[in-house]
Amino acid sequence: MFISTVAHGGAGYLRSNHHFPPGRLTIDRAPNFGWNLGFHLQIDGRPVTSIAQGHSYSTWLSAGPHVLTVLKVPASGYTAPTSTTVNIQPGAEHLYVAMWDSNLVYLQPAGFWLTPGAYWQNHGDGAP
């Protein structure tokens, strides 16, 4: 008796099962952000955290585009959310700084994306 099984997948099969490592997103507050202000952070429309003075946020995100939205708190006076699209590169560190200007919070890239080795080389103590 002869039993044979054949598994076949086309080109789409290889693409759909290819796993890319995540990238690291870190958001710091600018030194002149304001001692009495913070901001809410949403990633892809989902509330993530609120960041106050002396704090930052860091997480792993899947590779690809993500929308980062920030909103000043407390929400006194004129305030509106601002959004930034970031294209997370596999295995890279993405650094953003939250800035405050004219009652709006916005995210500014802190440079360019870094590979983990380049990040460690620049910040060997692990501090952003």
Give the secondary structure arrangement, pairings included.
Layout: H1 11-17, E1 23-29, E2 38-43, E3 46-51, E4 57-61, E5 64-73, E6 82-88, E7 93-101, E8 104-109, H2 116-122
Parallel strand pairs: 1-7
Antiparallel strand pairs: 1-4, 2-3, 2-5, 5-6, 7-8
Descriptive account of the structure:
Helix content is 11%, strand content 44%. β7 and β8 form a beta hairpin. It has two helices and eight strands; from the N terminus they run αββββββββα. The chain has one domain: Immunoglobulin-like. It has a four-stranded mixed β-sheet, with no helix packed on it. A four-stranded antiparallel β-sheet has the order 3-2-5-6, with no helix packed on it. It is mainly beta and 128 residues long. The longest helix has 7 residues. The termini are far apart. The N terminus is likely disordered.
Q: Based on CA inertia axes, which overall geometry fits? A: globular
Annotated CATH topology: Immunoglobulin-like
- Give the tally of structural domains: 1
Give Rg in angstroms: 20 Å
Q: What is the helical fraction, as a range of percent?
A: 10-25%
Distance between the termini: 64 Å
H/E order of the elements?
A: HEEEEEEEEH
Order of neighbouring strands in the sheet with most strands: 4-1-7-8
Major beta-sheet overview: 4 strands, mixed
* Strand residue percentage: 35-45%
